[in-house]
Amino acid sequence: MRDLSRDKSLLAINSATVKPWTLEQLVEGCARSGITGIAPWRDIVQAVGIEKAGRMIRAAGLTVTCLCRGGMFPAADAAGRRAALDDNRRAVDEAAGIGARSLVLIAGGLPKGSKDLAGAHEQVRDGLAALLPYARDAGVPLAIEPLHPMYAADRACVNTLAHANDLCDELGEGMGVAVDAYHVWWDPDLPRQIERAGSRILTYHVCDWLVPTRDLLLDRGMPGDGVIDLPGLRRMVEATGYDGHIDVEIFSAENWWKREPGEVLRICVERHQTVV
Amino acid sequence: MRDLSRDKSLLAINSATVKPWTLEQLVEGCARSGITGIAPWRDIVQAVGIEKAGRMIRAAGLTVTCLCRGGMFPAADAAGRRAALDDNRRAVDEAAGIGARSLVLIAGGLPKGSKDLAGAHEQVRDGLAALLPYARDAGVPLAIEPLHPMYAADRACVNTLAHANDLCDELGEGMGVAVDAYHVWWDPDLPRQIERAGSRILTYHVCDWLVPTRDLLLDRGMPGDGVIDLPGLRRMVEATGYDGHIDVEIFSAENWWKREPGEVLRICVERHQTVV
C-alpha cells in the first residue's frame, strides 16, 4: 500500500496552477492544506518584493522547490542578449532571496525574423555559460527545462532531455535539469536520458497531456485526466535518487484557471495521492 | 544562380494542399501548371477507383511521389490490429495501382484508454513487420513518417527520425522514411539522422511552422511564411543523394483550404522556386 502521508509531503504547488492567487494566498492555501512545497513564478514574488516574500515563505516553513523562470537567451543583437543576462541575474537574486532550491530556465526560441536554429542553440549555451558563475556564487543551481518541441520556435529551442543533458555535460557544476512530464513524456529516449541526468534532476513537474489538446500553450490537464503514465515516469525519476517534491504545474485557461483556487488545490492533493 | 526550370520539375503537390479538388482536378491543375508530381491522399483515389485513377495519372505523365497514407497500427485488441493490417494491405494495393513510389505510413497513437507508450511502439513495429512482406511482393516501398511529437498521443507515436531509422534498421529491405520538414525541423539531432537515413529517404515533404500556430493539426504554413530553414533542410536531404520531388503538403483550415485551389497551386510554384 502506498504511504499517502509521505505522498502528500512531496506535493508542491506551482503558482501557475492557481494563477489567480497572490503569493500570500498561495502560502496560506498550502498551509491550510498541509502542502509543504511551492514553486512560485517570478511575478508573484516581485509583486510583494523579495525580502517580504522570503520572510512569508520561511515563516510558513515551506520548501521552495524552484523559482519559475528565467532563460529566454537568444536575441537579435548583443543588447538583447545583455538584457536577457541582466534579467537572469535578477532571477538568480530572487531565487536566492526566497531560498529556492533551483532556478528554472527555459531556453528561448528563435530571435524575431531568424530561421537559424543552430545559432539559437549556440546563444542558449553561451547565455547559460555567462550566467553560471553568478548563479554559483549565489548558491542557486540552474535547472534547464526542455520544453515540448511545439515550443521550439517561440519559447524554447531546447526540446529534449538529451539536449539538456548535453548542456549539463558541457557546462558542469551548478547546471542541472528540470523534468516536466508534459514536455518529455513522448520521447522514446526518455528512460535512458532520465538515467543519464541522474542527480542533475533538480525539480520534477507534472500535469497531463489531454486528448484532444485544444491550445498549444494553455490546455494542459490535471494529473490523471490525460494520457501520460505519471507513475511510470515518477518511478524512473525516483530511481535516479531524486527524493524532492513533485510540482503540479497546470496552464489551463479554459478550465482550471477558471475554478476557485482552493478547490483546485484540493483536487491536486487528491490526484497526487492517487495517480501521480 | 538557381536553375528554376529544374526546380519546378521537382515540385509535387500533395492533395491535402488543394483539399477541395478531386483527383481529376488535381491532375488537370498540375498539367496546366507544368507540375510533374503529385502525392494523393487515399480518399481522392478511392473516390474514382484505383484503375481509373491509375489511367488518369499515367495519361498525364505524372510521377506519384507517394500515396498518403496508411499506418495507424496500435489498437486496443487483436481484432483492431487485424483491421488495421487489412486496411494497410488495401493501401499497398492502391499505391501499386497508381504507381506510387512509396506508401507513406504514420504510426498511430495510443489505443483508447491506454497510457502504455512503449507498448504502442511495439505494436507499430509489429504492424510494420506484418505488412512488409505484402508490400515487398507488391513492389511498394513503405515510408514511415515521423510526425511532430505533439501528435504522439492520438496520431503517431513515432516522432523522431531517429526512431524511424531504428525501425528501418530492424525491419530491413523495403522500409524507408518520409521526411516532412514540419515534423522534424526542431530536432537538434536532425543533421545526423538525415545522414543516417541516407538512401532510405523515399519522399520529402515541406510546409512551414507558423508563429503563432493556432491549431495543432490544421494551421500549417505555406513554405516561406514560417520559421523553418527550408533551403538548409533541403541541402541536407539532397546531400544524401535524394533527387526526387519535393511535396508541398499544407493542412490549413482557416487559410489555404479556403482559397481557390488554382491560386494555391500558383503560389506553391512561386515559393518552390524561391524559398524551398
Question: What can you see in these coordinates?
Answer:
- By secondary structure, chain A is of the alpha/beta class.
- Chain A has a single domain (4-274), classed as TIM Barrel (Alpha-Beta Barrel), CATH 3.20.20.
- Chain A has eleven helices and nine strands.
- In chain A, helix 2 (23-33) runs parallel beside helix 4 (50-60).
- The longest helix of chain A is centred in the middle third of the chain and has 22 residues, at 117-138.
Quick structural summary:
By secondary structure, chain A is of the alpha/beta class. The first copy, chain A, has 11 helices and 9 strands.
The helix-and-strand class of chain A reads: alpha/beta
Number of strands of chain A: 9
The greatest interface between two protein chains, and residues involved on each side, is: A-B, 32 and 32 residues
Question: What percent of residues of chain A adopt helix (DSSP H or I)?
Answer: 40-55%
Number of helices of chain A: 11
**Strand fraction of chain A:** 5-15%
Count the domains of chain A. 1
CATH top level assignment of chain A? Alpha Beta
Overall pLDDT of chain A:
96
| Quaternary | homodimer
Question: Biggest sheet of chain A, strands in spatial order?
Answer: 3-2-1-9-8-7-6-5-4
**Which descriptor suits the 3D outline of chain A?**
globular
Order of helices and strands of chain A: HEHEHHEEHEHEHEHHEHEH
**First and last CA, distance of chain A:** 15 Å
Question: Cα-atom Rg of chain A, whole angstroms?
Answer: 18 Å
The stretches of 5 or more residues of chain A where confidence is low (pLDDT under 50) are 1-5
What is the CATH architecture annotation of chain A?
Alpha-Beta Barrel
* CATH T-level topology of chain A: TIM Barrel
What is the CATH H-level superfamily of chain A? Answer: Divalent-metal-dependent TIM barrel enzymes
Main sheet specs of chain A: 9 strands, parallel
